[in-house]
Specification:
- The chain has 6 helices and 4 strands, in the order αβαβαβαβαα.
- It is globular.
- The protein has one domain (34-140): Rossmann fold, CATH 3.40.50.1820.
- Strand 3, helix 4 and strand 4 form a beta-alpha-beta unit.
- The strands form 2 sheets. A two-stranded parallel sheet has the order 1-2.
- Helix 1 (16-29) packs across helix 2.
- The protein is an alpha/beta fold.
- It has helices spanning 16-29, 44-54, 74-78, 95-103, 121-124, 126-140, and strands spanning 36-40, 60-64, 85-89, 110-114.
- Helices cover 41% and strands 14% of the residues.
Length: 141
């Protein structure tokens, strides 16, 4: 993501609006129509504003203990119509539970907790993570 890791910082992603535009541009360049957006950790800064502004362009949303959930209100989350699977590791007692507290306001959401996994539950328990993710994806078909 721009501004993270070894990537150069860019003014475009300095605001939520800019991050929405960036993610929209990436999805368009990839030719993706109605993708399922999986958003672990820091990608929440991009995915959450995109979900709230353009969630109708997504077939589904899978937040994996994303950052930034407290930046939005329960009322904003209640407007989301995108099928959502809230996923986190049971050992992620900080960000996972914090994200759940905010995201639980999304109507009709599902929750999957990966046992014996920390914040990066997809790395700690990849089979359990993929089982939950694939189960959600099958429900979307």
């Amino acid at each position: 993501l721009p501004g993270y890791g070894d990537s150069a910082p860019t003014e475009m992603v300095a605001t939520a609006h800019g991050r929405v535009a960036f993610l929209d541009h990436v999805l368009q360049k990839l030719g993706m129509q109605r993708p399922v957006l999986v958003s672990p950790s820091m990608s929440g800064r991009f995915a959450l504003p995109f979900l709230l502004a353009r969630g109708d362009q997504l077939a589904g949303f899978v937040p994996v203990a994303p950052v930034g959930t407290k930046d939005y209100t329960a009322e904003q989350y209640q407007q989301v119509q995108t099928p959502t699977l809230i996923l986190y590791g049971d050992r992620d007692t900080r960000l996972g539970l914090q994200a759940l507290q905010s995201l639980r306001h999304i109507p009709g959401h599902h929750v999957a907790v990966v046992p014996d996994a920390g914040h990066a539950c997809y790395l700690d328990k990849p089979e359990d993570f993929h089982r939950a993710l694939l189960g959600f994806l099958r429900q979307l078909q």
